[in-house]
Amino acid sequence: MRLLALLLLTSTLAASPSLAQVAEPSPRAQDAFDVMNLLTKAGLHNLDDESWNAYGQLTWISSLKAPFQAPYTNLNGSNMSLSPDFEHSFTGSATLYLGVKLWEGGEAYYVPEVVSERPLSQLRGIGGSIQNFELQKGGTPTPQVYRARTYFQQNFDLGGASVTKSSEPLQLGSKVKRRRLVVRAGTFSIIDFLDKNEFAGDLRQQFFNMAFLTYSAYDFNSDARGLTFGGVAELYLDDWAIRFGRVAPPQNPNALSVDFRLDKHFGDQLELEHKHQLLGQPGAVRLLGYRNRAITGRFDDAIAAFQAEPSRANAAACPGYHYDSTNAGAPDLCWSRRPNTKYGIGLNIEQRLTESLGVSFRGMVSDGQSEVYAYTPTDRSVAATLLANGTPWKRPRDLAGVGAAANWISSVHAKYLGMGGVDGFVGDGKIHQASEQVFEVFYSLNLVGPSWVSLDYQHLINPAFNSDRGPVEIFGGRLHAEF
Prior knowledge:
There is one protein chain. The protein is mainly beta and 483 residues long. The protein has helices at residues 2-14, 35-41, 299-308, 411-418, and strands at residues 52-65, 87-103, 106-118, 144-165, 174-188, 228-237, 240-247, 266-278, 281-297, 337-354, 357-366, 380-390, 395-408, 436-446, 451-461, 472-482. Strands 1-2-3-4-5-6-7-8-9-10-11-12-13-14-15-16 form a 16-stranded antiparallel barrel. A hairpin with a 2-residue loop joins strand 10 (337-354) and strand 11 (357-366). Helix 3 packs parallel to helix 4 (411-418).
């Protein structure tokens, strides 16, 4: 909470007229990198009414974690601690975005991607504040090529004023109505369409840490790469929008294989959005609720099973899917998995303060009774950011941001971890429960055309919700180019 107070103070100072003016979505460069614009100038394409488009991106992110103090690490055979030693993490990604118009209102998108990565401590020991949101579960330094997205989209105009949709990745340039229904089906990430935020949502140009790019407590269904299969419907009614999605969970917690039985196991989410003007500046408020139905373990059931038969129902003796803990004196969720429901509700606010300055806030509460299935083990989360572009210092395509976030777990979750249990990617063997907090500041310098280099600093307090360990200092850099 101290970090949130610091951010509020920073936001108050930055809103003064002598400081920054942010961040509209970055304008596409008018240079040789912009193939679509060059084709339009040559009379071979129409950006305002596209029959197809193609975009791409290249991103390299590097993170250095300094050594930190920890009185214990992986105590008694638990195996989910962040290493207290120096570590280097990286991700490299290349993505191609292809879109085609099939008929009036009908569109299809295909996105191949290649990713190479090395996480800190095999992605273990941090709860809802992983320093690089591009990291995937189970990734390797060897580049892996896969199909990231393949989906169909149909727009049904329902009337009202016209809206111009610009040409960009996953969006064909076209004109639609302010009142319309959009339906999609295929493979995608649910946060491609829900929980959007102009000032905290672009992992390749804005903040590095996942805590600022969606709700840490949003256990949205996805495979180990963050993707899923399902459908999403959006109803736009002037300044209002309603979105509903049903998507597939992984077959096992945090695994790559997806369970396609959407009638039995699923993740439902419903989002209500209202866009507004405040003192002449645009903003938006979004309320999101989710409900997951899958075979998961409850913390109280795992504790009860261990207490009833500690020599049998312990982590070291787990049958079936488990996280390889060798702690024979600890409970484990593998003994309590059964059909279960998990739910949460969150608030997402974005507000432009000036033409070059904007703020965001996210807060979510999940039920805190069962294990993480696809995202992070956080049960409650809040995050606030301030984002500015460089217009006041004659660098309009530069970006600077500061953010603070805090994540909590429930009391029964902490009890389970305190007994030596592991949940997803946290579990030090014991715990002194506290909120996991992160402070981040970055600057992104535009180089030539649509290319940027960024420097980043993150200060992480109470990693894995444990005040016995840390704080952790992480220094990052990013190279990003678009075409």
